[in-house]
Specification:
- With about 220 residues, the protein is an alpha/beta fold.
- The protein is built from eight helices and nine strands.
- Strands 6-7-8-3-9 form a five-stranded parallel sheet, with helices on both faces. A four-stranded antiparallel sheet has the order 2-1-4-5.
- Strand 4 and strand 5 (about 65) form a beta hairpin.
- Helix 4 (about 115-125) crosses helix 6.
């Protein structure tokens, strides 16, 4: 279970974009966080994924308080989360072919021997054909690159996925395919999901429950 209690967070001292927000995602649950652009939901998602330290408040994972964020967090905590961001091109190293992009977390955690097997397993699961894996980000479409970013988020078998506007910049068919890939992974692993977005229809169809930002503040 992931618990965010009275989180206040921002990027400038004394100017928080999230104020006293609490949210819970139970084990295996899918929660949609609905809100307009600029409300702070992406910042909260980054706190939830241990990518941004809050100014105040408490984050608990399985009842245990988290005390460190980003690279200072223990590896077992960092690898419990898989994150997919809205803008794939800002989260992908333009020098890497897609196969290396997917494999980044494996190599970073000393599991390079798993690269071939995990890439072969995940590429078809997210809809990537073998010819695409050798291409670099500038040689593929936004949708194809986001498929690779989803595979990267899944490669360490996380038990909680954070999808921050994952489908916002994609066409309807690609968005549906990525949601289906996430749900297939969750069905096989029991992973929980925090899906952030502004599309009420998508979140209500996708998630067990949807929480509106205004109800958190």
């Amino acid at each position: 279970m992931l618990e965010l209690r009275s989180i206040t967070a921002g990027y400038t001292r004394n100017a928080p974009v999230v104020r006293d927000v609490s949210l819970t995602v139970a084990a295996g649950e899918s929660v949609g966080l609905l809100g307009p652009s600029g409300c702070g939901k992406s910042t909260l998602a980054r706190v939830a994924a241990l990518l941004h330290r809050p100014d105040s408040g408490t984050l608990l994972l399985d009842g245990e308080p988290v005390r460190h964020w980003r690279h200072r967090a223990p590896r077992a905590l960092r690898t419990a989360f898989g994150v997919v961001f809205q803008q794939a091109r800002l989260s992908a190293d333009p020098r890497l072919p897609l196969t290396d992009l997917i494999a980044e977390p494996l190599r970073a955690t000393g599991r390079g021997r798993e690269v071939a097997d995990r890439t072969a397993e995940l590429a078809p699961a997210v809809g990537l054909t073998p010819d695409l894996l050798t291409r670099r980000p500038h040689e593929v479409s936004d949708g194809q690159l986001q498929r690779a970013c989803l595979a990267r988020a899944l490669v360490l078998r996380p038990r909680l996925l954070v999808c921050d506007e994952m489908t916002a910049m994609l066409d309807a068919s690609t968005a549906a395919a990525l949601v289906a890939a996430v749900e297939s992974y969750r069905a096989s692993t029991g992973a929980a999901l925090l899906a952030v977005g502004h599309d009420r229809t998508l979140l209500e169809r996708w998630c067990d429950r949807t929480v509106h930002w205004d109800d958190l503040t």
